[in-house]
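User: Before I run my own analysis I want an independent prediction to cross-check against. Here's the chain; please return only the structure tokens and, at the end, one sentence I can use as a sanity check.
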Amino acid sequence: MGTESVFASILYGKILRNFCKLKFYEEFVSGNSTNIKSKLKEVIKHLITETKLIKNQLGLEINELLSTLIIGIIDTKNTKAEFIAIGDGLICIDGELIEYEQNDKPDYLGYHLAENFENWYESQKQKLSVSTFNDLSICTDGIFTFKNFENKSKQKSEKRYNRLSIN
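Assistant: Structure tokens:
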């Protein structure tokens, strides 16, 4: 875990919000839209570019840029979605739980800022394409705090865990 990971989370949120607003207005005015898989890649590329710029401007260390990210582009009209999970987390689609667990060694975005983007992006294993859905939930690794890993006898039932993500 990084130093002040809340800083990284807030920074990523602000970069993403700004870019998404800009892209929404561009698409609205032009009437052109790209497919959601391409949009996700474009969003991640922009996030890395902006993060590198801010890192250099503020003299930030890598450990100040470590945060879990689960980013999704959702086509609500056609009920399709594209996701990438960077770090640990959970995506629930129509009751099916897809868990991303990196054994307490999350491969955060901050570790890869100097790498070639295309190579890094193509090597990502935690990408998910959803062709249709009725119900969708995304959770970062905080959802796993409801599990008791040390003492299995005190583990709450899966019903309680599932209720948080499914219901």
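Sanity check: The first strand starts at residue 69 and ends at 75.
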